[in-house]
Amino acid sequence: MKMSRLMNETLREASSATEVAGHQLLLRAGFVRQVAAGVFSYLHLGQRALQKIEAIMRQEMDALGGQEIKMPLVHPAALWQASRRWYEIDAELGRLVDRNGRSLTLALSHEETLADLARQEIRSYRQLPQMAYHIQTKWRDDPRPRAGLIRSREFTMLDSYSLDADDAGLERQYRAHYDAYFRIFARCGLPVLAVEADVGMMGGTLAHEFMYLTPIGEDTLLLCDGCGYRANRQVATFRKPENGRSTQTVQFVAELVVGQEKREQVVTAVLATHSHINETKLGHLLDAQRLRPTAEQATDIWVIDEGVIGWRGPVGVVADIVAAQAGDACTNCGQPLQTARAVEVANIFKLGTRYSGTMGATFVDALDEARPIVMGSYGIGVTRLLACLAEHHHDKKGLCWPVNVAPYPVHLLVLRGGEETAESLYHQMRQAGIDLLYDDRDERPGVKFNDADLIGLPLRLTISQRSLAADGVEVQVRAGGETAVVAPNDLLSYVTNWLRLAK
């Protein structure tokens, strides 16, 4: 691709409204442009990088035996009503009505749609196991989109879904995805760690999140250096100290779902002094215990943390309802826990029969009995991964893309006096199958060098009158800055070998 033909231009500065360095650089380098709050267009360089990421994902999903499909962005409300998430998710779910008055929703995820496919296509245990995946647009009407692509309202995800006859089959597919996700992130060049997580709106029995550690992250992790315990604060546990006689109460209004209605009820939580309530744990407790006010009940619902000692107040449910903090004792080994900020880039869920059971996705087993299909759900944020890569791979000059995900692996710059040789090498490398971005613009050398640093392609080739006088092409590695001078006749072999070793 010749830069003189690119529709976008680089920017010397990004908008002051941009919050994080990676997103500023994606804007300045011409990878993305904002359309509305949390909604972006991906220009040529951004789309090329996304395609490289998606190609890696497809290779790893295909290696698991996955079948690529494509499910729609718009879903009938009836599917989400059948799973009950229509009533459980509030304004984040994009709802609309078509011209015939039918209620629809924009895809926040695709569990309902996949369960609907399964109940149409799967009949017998002989058809199991199955795994299907797609890469599709999602919509979440986030009230506060931030950090560019890291928290956007419209985004792209890789979703895969496993279908099994039993929990043992689900465990195998869950573990296979767990390992495959680490391979995907390693090939893309993003360091991640997996932590125990809340199942959240997805439901199910178990979840893990894949986290990129960064100060800009909104999630807080609890980590133990002693035994390797890792969990999101939403679900993290710890050893309660034996000094829980001094207590505090926290009172708030909880929204309880009864049938298709939502009802508010005052909940009073009792916890040790200096502890902090964990609303995720408390919410799950209310749902699991089905705590509901009775007709005679005019007082609060009381919940007492298990770390409270000698409570003599109103009777309530005793459970773990406090948030772990830095310095608390690890639940496994007793060592002090540490906290870290992180961005969630992927998650995996053991859904079990959460969707198949409510939506009638069943199969007939070997004993000729109908049973619900056992499901798993697995997702990676494609556009969020792009944002995290930009956040991780940059310096003060600009982006520094890893070879596997760079929109182009090679950036060819031509300066005055090198036009004829550069044009010849451009066509020679394209014929050899090397993708390269060719800066053929009539610009000053400083502009070209600054743009090359900003865009951040892995290998830069500079051809000028000065370099040719020295019988060579200046070669520079973007990350690290190593330089070499290579004869034009040897350049193709040099670049080919460098790219092979860099992947």
Would you give an account of this structure?
The chain is α+β, with helices and mostly antiparallel strands and 503 residues long. It folds into three domains: 42-190 and 352-391, BirA Bifunctional Protein, domain 2; 238-323, no CATH class; 410-502, Anticodon-binding domain (Rossmann fold), CATH 3.40.50. It has helices at residues 21-28, 44-63, 77-83, 85-88, 111-121, 167-188, 279-289, 356-359, 382-392, 419-431, 445-455, 465-469, 491-502; strands at 32-36, 39-42, 67-68, 74-76, 95-97, 103-106, 130-139, 154-164, 193-196, 206-213, 219-223, 230-232, 238-239, 247-258, 261-272, 301-305, 317-319, 329-330, 338-352, 362-364, 370-372, 374-381, 410-414, 436-439, 459-463, 473-477, 483-486. The strands form seven sheets. Strands 3, 7, 8, 9, 10, 11, 12, 19 and 22 form a nine-stranded mixed sheet that branches. A five-stranded mixed sheet has the order 24-23-25-26-27, sandwiched between helices. The longest helix has 22 residues, at 167-188. 39% of the residues are buried.
Number of helices: 13
Mean pLDDT across all amino acids: 93
- First-residue to last-residue Cα separation: 22 Å
- Sheet bearing the most strands, described? 9 strands, mixed
CATH homologous superfamily of the largest domain? Bira Bifunctional Protein, Domain 2
Please state the CA-atom Rg, rounded to the nearest Å. 27 Å
Q: Report the CATH topology name of the largest domain.
A: BirA Bifunctional Protein, domain 2
